[in-house]
Amino acid sequence: MTSTPCSQCGECCRWLVLGEIQEMSADERRYHALRGATERQGLVLVEHPCTMLEYYRAEDGAAAGAGDLTDDNLARGIVRARCSVHGKKPEVCRLYEGKRRRDGMVFYIPERCTMAAGKKKQ
Ligand code: SF4
Ligand code: SF4
């Protein structure tokens, strides 16, 4: 099954993967939880948007203002997010293709990711 194109929701660049739950001790998990981490899909994640994300309004391509940056606007595609260093982004970013694992890396696949296998573009 082929994946669909990226809808530029920015969600995969918003979460930092600290590791897999199954590889962590109870104490590590507790420590991460105390530091504000989230457990989801068997992963420990921190919400920390990449500083290289660039937000723009889908309607006219203009830079999104602070008031535009709501989760709802991103989820509905009213505001989109793109990588400002796309041509020079890190290798780990290039490996992301909407799959959990690739080349030894573990990725978080956001619910809204249109690149995830079997999902339709939003
Ligand atoms: S460098 Fe670009 S692709 Fe990589 S996490 Fe940041 S915004 Fe996303
Ligand atoms: S989560 Fe998927 S659709 Fe959203 S920006 Fe990342 S690759 Fe694109």
What does this structure look like?
It is built from three helices and seven strands. By secondary structure, it is of the alpha+beta class. The protein is globular. The mean pLDDT is 92. One iron/sulfur cluster (SF4) binds next to loops.
Descriptive tags:
3 helices; alpha+beta; 122 residues; single chain; two-stranded antiparallel ribbon; 16% helix; 3-stranded antiparallel beta sheet; binds iron/sulfur cluster
Distance between the ends: 18 Å
Number of domains: 1
- What is the residue-averaged pLDDT? 92
Widest β-sheet, arrangement of strands: 1-3-2
Q: State the shape.
A: globular
Q: Specify the helix fraction band.
A: 10-25%
The largest sheet is:
3 strands, antiparallel
> Structural class from helices and strands?
alpha+beta
Number of strands: 7
Provide the β-strand percentage band.
Answer: 15-25%
**Gyration radius from CA atoms, angstroms:** 15 Å
- Regions with pLDDT < 50 over 5+ consecutive residues? none
Q: Ligands in the structure?
A: iron/sulfur cluster
Task: Offer a concise description of the structure.
The protein has 122 residues and is of the alpha+beta class. It is built from three helices and seven strands; from the N terminus they run βαβββαβαββ.
Task: Annotate the secondary structure layout.
Layout: E1 15-20, H1 26-34, E2 38-40, E3 43-47, E4 53-57, H2 71-75, E5 79-83, H3 91-95, E6 101-102, E7 105-106
Antiparallel strand pairs: 1-3, 2-3, 4-5, 6-7
The protein binds iron/sulfur cluster (2 copies).
